[in-house]
């Protein structure tokens, strides 16, 4: 129940597992509904990732590294747990290749690749752990990635940390939706692209605005199929399957047709309105006759002329009853 004074409530999920990894939001209702029939999305959502004491971190590096040179990579996280021993792992293509002690004061760890070689495209990311990890492929490895790409003996690092925002997270079908992709780490280069993703699949590409440090994406006339998680990533090179880790959830709902019960209710209300209107008109006519001096049992036919209102047992009188004249 919602506390009336604080207007908030707390939910506790116990014995969490990796299956609890999802986007979470909340809604309130004046009526109690069973959870299985509740559909919708709150004004905002949070993404919770359950790991085996492994915490994703952000990685950063120089934007351009020449073939054969060394490169420094920085692993950082503001959400790192405050423990006495914490290890930072550098991953290449989701496989651990190096480990360093975590600096709890600076909230970061540094890695150095002595000599980068070309010939392929590698993805680098980092994670934190409270326990030693084996050099195996990890399901979760980093909040973002930098991509090492060989192009004419020049390696370009891309896949910068980027954030995405949407004007409205719940819209009606047929509406237009505006997304904004931003990044404070984007380099000042002539050519930089922003990739727009839905459910971890690239669906659009826009040129990066280096002055505003952002790119805009528009979805026109959205439908229910457009419901999903949206993210973005900024890159100096062509990407085919890389998307951002920070996502927003968009829900598109269709206007519900009028149910048959509502339709019948509307007809009943219209019928009642017609009856009330007819009774009001009849009452006005009777009051008009009474104001003209006609006794009870009379009704108006023409202005100034009234006839008796006879019952079924009474005989019909054909002579009109004229309103009395002033002498």
| Count of individual beta strands | 22
Outline the biggest β-sheet: 9 strands, antiparallel
Oligomeric description of these chains: single chain
CATH architecture of the largest domain, by name, is: Sandwich
Q: Report the total helices.
A: 1
Helix content: under 10%
Radius of gyration: 37 Å
CATH class of the largest domain: Mainly Beta
Give the helices and strands, then pairings:
Blueprint: E1 22-24, E2 46-48, E3 54-61, E4 64-66, E5 71-76, E6 87-92, E7 95-101, E8 108-113, E9 122-129, E10 146-151, E11 154-158, E12 163-166, E13 170-172, E14 177-182, E15 193-198, E16 201-207, E17 214-219, E18 228-235, E19 247-253, H1 260-291, E20 298-302, E21 305-308, E22 321-322
Parallel strand pairs: 13-19
Antiparallel strand pairs: 1-2, 3-5, 3-9, 4-11, 5-8, 6-7, 6-9, 9-10, 10-11, 12-14, 14-17, 15-16, 15-18, 18-19, 20-21, 21-22
Report on the architecture of this protein.
- The chain is mainly beta.
- The chain folds into three domains: 18-49 and 161-253, Immunoglobulins (Immunoglobulin-like, Sandwich), CATH 2.60.40.10; 54-158, Immunoglobulins (Immunoglobulin-like), CATH 2.60.40.10; 265-306, no CATH class.
- Helices cover 10% and strands 36% of the residues.
- The chain contains one helix and 22 strands.
- The protein has one helix at 260-291; strands at 22-24, 46-48, 54-61, 64-66, 71-76, 87-92, 95-101, 108-113, 122-129, 146-151, 154-158, 163-166, 170-172, 177-182, 193-198, 201-207, 214-219, 228-235, 247-253, 298-302, 305-308, 321-322.
- The strands form five sheets. Strands 3, 4, 5, 6, 7, 8, 9, 10 and 11 form a nine-stranded antiparallel β-sheet that branches. The chain has a five-stranded mixed β-sheet with strand order 13-19-18-15-16, with no helix packed on it.
- Strand 6 (87-92) and strand 7 (95-101) form a beta hairpin.
- The longest helix is centred in the last third of the chain and has 32 residues, at 260-291.
- Mean pLDDT is 75; it is low at 151-155, 294-305, 308-319 and 323-327.
């Amino acid at each position: 129940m919602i506390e009336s004074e604080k207007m908030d409530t707390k939910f506790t999920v116990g014995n969490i597992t990796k299956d609890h990894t999802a986007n979470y939001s909340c809604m309130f209702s004046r009526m109690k509904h069973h959870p299985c029939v509740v559909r919708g999305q709150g004004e905002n959502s949070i993404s919770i990732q359950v790991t085996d004491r492994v915490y994703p971190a952000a990685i950063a590096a120089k934007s351009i590294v020449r073939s054969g040179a060394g490169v420094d990579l920085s692993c950082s996280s503001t959400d790192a747990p405050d423990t006495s021993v914490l290890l930072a792992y550098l991953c290449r293509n989701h496989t651990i290749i190096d480990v360093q002690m975590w600096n709890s004061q600076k909230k970061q760890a540094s890695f150095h690749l002595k000599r980068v070689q070309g010939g392929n495209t590698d993805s680098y990311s980092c994670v934190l752990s409270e326990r030693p990890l084996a050099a195996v492929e990890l399901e979760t490895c980093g909040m973002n990635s930098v991509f090492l790409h060989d192009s004419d003996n020049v390696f370009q690092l891309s896949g910068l940390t980027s954030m995405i925002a949407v004007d409205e997270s719940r819209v009606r079908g047929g509406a237009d939706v505006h997304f904004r992709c931003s990044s404070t780490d984007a380099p000042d280069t002539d050519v930089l692209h922003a990739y727009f993703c839905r459910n971890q699949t690239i669906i659009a590409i826009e040129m990066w605005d280096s002055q505003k440090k952002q790119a805009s994406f528009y979805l026109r006339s959205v439908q229910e199929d457009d419901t999903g998680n949206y993210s973005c990533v900024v890159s100096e090179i062509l990407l085919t399957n890389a998307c951002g880790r920070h996502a927003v959830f968009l829900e598109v709902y269709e206007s519900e047709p009028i149910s048959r019960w509502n339709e019948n209710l509307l007809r009943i209300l219209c019928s009642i309105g017609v009856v009330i209107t007819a009774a009001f008109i009849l009452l006005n006519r009777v009051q008009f006759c009474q104001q003209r001096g006609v006794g009870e049992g009379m009704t108006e036919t023409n202005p100034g002329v009234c006839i008796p209102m006879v019952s079924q047992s009474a005989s019909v009188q054909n002579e009109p009853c004229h309103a009395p004249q002033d002498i």
